[in-house]
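Running this now, will post back.
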Amino acid sequence: MNLSEFAFRIIFLFIPGLIAFNIVSNLTFHKEYKTADILLGSLTYGFICYLIYFFIFIFISSELGFSNQPTFYFAENLENIKTQLDFKEITITTLLAIPIGVVFSAFVNSKWLYKFANKINISNKLDDLGVWNRAFDSELNHWIVIRDEQADTMYQGWVDSFSDGSDEKEILLRDVKVFRESNAELLYLVPGLYISFNNKENIKIEFRSWPFTDNISMDSVNEQLSN
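Update: finished.
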């Protein structure tokens, strides 16, 4: 078997892993993947898909004493390159990859692993996201104020959607009020506004709907608001 045939064989075997990885990649926030990350992730999810297939269709049927037990070909296909691929097994595992990808996406988005590590004092790390994603991936980031000092413009509005921050930093605002930053003069109102932060400097974003923590005195907050 030449290299092209071997590569074709591996691709077919790990189609479930590619699908599961792609689902998780699209449903979660993450840093930009490198080629090695994609390959390793696809292989990892592929092994998980086949492991779950084995548990459901091989192990359980064996434990229940079913006479017509399917054969698990994955391990043999990896060990012996001369064996024929079982496309039925690959098809079923590929179908399993869809719910597996969704479940792992929910697991990643819930940050359960980080919360568990924090609770047992293994790590203080909150997640693997950048500051942009951490700020906007929150239930509290509804109403924001964007100050563009260079353009002397201030925007107020509700966050409708935002980019993941890996390549471009973009925000779509709703019910937007646009002011002149220097004198707070209202310039106009618009129902929707797209803003790109690429190649921009002196941009400030204020999250006005976030509550203050217990570390700040509410008296000082009320005093500032009264001024």
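The mean pLDDT is 82. More later if anyone needs it.
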